[in-house]
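Encode chain A's predicted structure.
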Amino acid sequence: YIEEGMAINGKLLNMVDASNYEGIYEFKQGDMLIPAGFGNLASWWVDTNYVKATAAGLQFLPVDGTYKVMVNIDKSTVHFKRVNADGSDATLADDGTGAIWLMGWGVGAPSLDNQFGWDAGKAYCMPEVAPCIYEFIGYAGPEKGSSIGQYFRYDYISMKYFHQNNWGGEMKLSGDEKNTTLNSTILNDEGNLEVDVKDKGHTPLENGATYKLTIDASAGKNNVVVKFVKGE
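Encoded structure for chain A:
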């Protein structure tokens, strides 16, 4: 199927290398994404925070905008991120719209075998599901041998959001530069957002349960509220 080309909604993806393809698309919230050239789509992981499987196809969940679709044919994965018209990574605007980027350990996708870590330029772009509202939803799981969809490590998390896909503007929970309020009985304010069962005696997540991380920037990027709750 590679020779025939891979496409979404009739627009071909471009080959980056032997394993990776990507393309820039204008999507509207609620659009149906119709893939072609992917073979058996059921064998693929398509980021569940960006699309929802319906009888009519893959429904796009985030707000209207420009997005880069990134396909890895070796891992059978499809990732998304918000970009500018020229394809460069979007950033968080002063009014709280745009893009929020998540880095850290104990969080990953399509499973915890693929944690985000702290590598600049490789952060996870949280989908903006409503104006200025960003969400990341997944199951809790173990560090190793986790299942697809287990995005939060149940016994250890240390994560932080950034205003760009790089170091620079970031979450500040205290001090003169405080720009974020943590509203959660599960995550702990340790400079980063943390669950640390072994070293700090935090309460673990329930293995296999669903958790939702919400970043609400509706009051602007310097008045953000972070919520983390069990269940959806």
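Helices lie at 197-200.
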